[in-house]
Hints:
With about 325 residues, the chain is an alpha/beta fold.
Amino acid sequence: MSTFAEDMSRGLSAPQKHTSSKYFYDDRGSQLFQAIMEMPEYYLPNCEFEILQEQSPDIVAALDFTEHFNIVELGAGDGLKTYHLLRYLVNAGFDFTYLPVDISSEAMKQLQAKLQRELPDLKIEALVGDYFQILGERLGVESSPNLLLFLGSNIGNYHPAEARDLLQRFHRAIRPGDKLLLGVDLQKNPNIIRRAYNDAAGITRSFNLNLLERMNRELGANFVVEQFDFYCSYNPQNGEVRSYLVSLCAQQVQLGPTGPRIAFGEHELIATELSRKYTYAELEQLAGDCGFRVASHFRDRRGYFTDSLWVRG
């Protein structure tokens, strides 16, 4: 049984049915997510794009690295936002090496080819695999200071205890004086957040329902997708956006020829994603709990988003 099948079987058999958001991103899901990022309501990528495009000189000045350093980007993907930071560094003559990390070998191959074509003077070493294995192997023998990049508000997809655990693991992987640039979506007018995660065009709904279609395609499951709907809520008191699929009737679904048979009650929920929004006070507390101090917040013009620079103590 594949890891995908095992995780779906375990999550959908739990008392509170749930799935992991990492399984959204098959080919169709990735296409839908691209469409989400282009929606005017979905402000997040434009905010971070603006920060890195306009404030790279300030971010680099705050690093205060005076010798060769590494930029290690975790979950680099297509590297679109980071390009502006890299271009500034190359054009300004800084001595650094860019180490993008991702689980997709194809994504890293394409990113390396693109950057070598567009920034021929960039020193790049694309790495494929698990974050922490690579950090241990690569940085364990490295004497240069490091800047970790964890962008895109990915930290918001972790429950609070999981976020602390992840950041503490980052802390253990680097040395005192190393830095972390953390992309964080901030709490704001609840209506702005609600529209971003429940768009009028229904693209986010299709993105969530595609997970059922993926199980049909890859696992041989027999979900009748029309018998499910999408629901999203935002709680401005704790900053949590929670997304769900809703069973519209009592039904049973077979997760493939050898998979379990899953019973759904009418109106039963499948939790699909958490996206947490932070306050500055929460970020200060989180940094301190994980052995960092906040050096600076680099905000977009509207104050919706921050790339928060932390120093490892």
